[in-house]
Amino acid sequence: MEKINFSTPSGFPEFLPGEKRLEQHLMDTIRRVYESYGFTPIETPAVERLEVLQAKGNQGDNIIYGLQPMLPPNRQAERDEAGKGDTGTEARALKFDQTVPLAAYIARHLNDLNFPFARYQMDLVFRGERAKDGRYRQFRQCDIDVVGRKELSLLYDAQMPAIIAEIFSQINVGEFLIRINNRKVLTGFFSSLGVSPDRIKTCINIIDTLEKVGVAKVLAALATQELSPEQAQQTIDFISIKGDVDRVLTALNEFAAKLNDADQFKLGIAELATVINGVRNLGVPESQYCIDLSIARGLDYYTGTVYETTLIGHEALGSICSGGRYEELVGTFIGESMPGVGISIGLTRLIYRLLKANILQPLAPTPTQVMVLNLQEDLMPIYLQVSQQLRQTGIKVATAFDKRSLKKQFALADKQGIIFCVVIGEEEAANKQCILKNMTSGEQVVVSIDNLAAEVKQRLA
C-alpha cells in the first residue's frame, strides 16, 4: 500500500491529553471571570464570506485561508457546479480573528440583541502566517467585546484591565503588567509634528514594532515616511516617557500645553485619564498596569484605548493578551455608529509559551480520580457496582476491565496520575470491604464499600 504521511500539517498543533486538560482548565477559569462581568457566550462560523473578512481593511496584514471544494475523482464532472449556493460561486474563507466575525454577527442579528452587547467567544481561528516556534496557523482565541449603539462608556475600556488582571491572577502566571495607551494620543502627537494625515497610521504601525525590531530600525522606518532625523528622535523620546500613571499623565498634559493645534491629542489624554481612573477604582493593583506610549496595536480598526499584557521577567514571550477600542468596525456592515472595545487571549499560543517557560505544567493525562482494579473476572459485577456508586457522588472513576497483574494495574494508574486505587479481592468482597490505596503516599486503608465514597471525598478534599 502507498505510504500515507499522517503527521500534522505545519502550524496546526494538537495537544497531548495533559496539555489539553490544561487548556480546558484555563478556559474554565477564563469563562468564569468573563461571566462574572456579565458577558454572554456566542459562536460564529469558522467560515465567513471573503468580502466580510476583507471589508475596508479588516484583513490588515493577516494572510487568509480561502476555501474551495475538492471533489472525489469519480465526480470531476460536477466541478463547475460545486460550491454554488443561493448566491452563486461566492468566495469564502476561514476567519482569522473573532472581532470581524463579531461585527458581521451583530449586523445579522441587530434586532435580536440588547445593547450594549457584551459577549465572549472561545473559537478556533486560522491565519496563513509562517509557522514557527509558538506561532500557529490554527489557534484558539478567548475574546470578549462590548459593542454599543452610537455611544459606549469609557468605563467599559477601564473594565478590560480589571478582567485581564483577575484572569492572570487566578491562573498563577506570576507577575504581569497591563500596558495601556490611546491611539488618539499617538495620532495627535504625529499631527503636532506636521506628519500628513495619510502617513500617520503608517507611523503608528511603525512604532508598534519597536520591541521587535529595536530603535535603529524604527528610526529608519520613520525616515521613509518623510520624518526628519529630529522628528524621528522626538518620536522615540515621546514614546519613551515612563513612570507611574499620574506622572505620565502630567507629562502628557504639559506636552499638550505647548502645542497650538492639539485637540486630538488632548482628547486622547482625557480618555486615557478616564480609563486609568476607572481601572484604579476597580481595585486593580497599580503594580499590574501602566501607561506605555509605545503601545499602538497593528490593526487599523483600533481608534482609542489599546492594551498589551506582558509577563514580568518573561518579556521575550511577547504579549499574552491584547485588544482595544474601535469605532467603525461594526458600522462597516450596517452604516451606523457602533463603538466597541475588547480584548483577546490567544490561548493556544499562550499555553505553548507558558509550558516552554515552565511557568505552567501539563495536568495529569486523565481526570480520573479513582481506578477500581480487576483482581478476579467473577468479581466484575461488584467492580461495576462500586464504580457506579462512586460516580453517582461526583467522583471520576475508571474501571479496569482487562485482567492484568496487580503490579501492572498500579503502574498504569500511577502513570496516568490517578490518585486512588480500589482493590477488592475475594476476601474483601465477602466482607463488603475494599482496600483504598493512595498512589502518591502509598498509604493503604481498609474501608467498607458503603463508606467508600465518603472516604474518597474526604481524602480528596
Detailed description of the structure:
With 461 residues, the protein is an alpha+beta fold. 39% of the residues lie in helices and 18% in strands. It has two domains: 17-356, BirA Bifunctional Protein, domain 2 (2-Layer Sandwich); 370-460, Rossmann fold (3-Layer(aba) Sandwich), CATH 3.40.50. The chain has 17 helices and 16 strands. The strands form three sheets. Strands 1-5-6-11-10-9-7-8 form an eight-stranded mixed sheet. Strands 13-12-14-15-16 form a five-stranded mixed sheet. The longest helix has 20 residues, at 17-36. The two termini are 54 Å apart.
Name the descriptors.
461 residues, alpha+beta, BirA Bifunctional Protein, domain 2, five-stranded mixed beta sheet
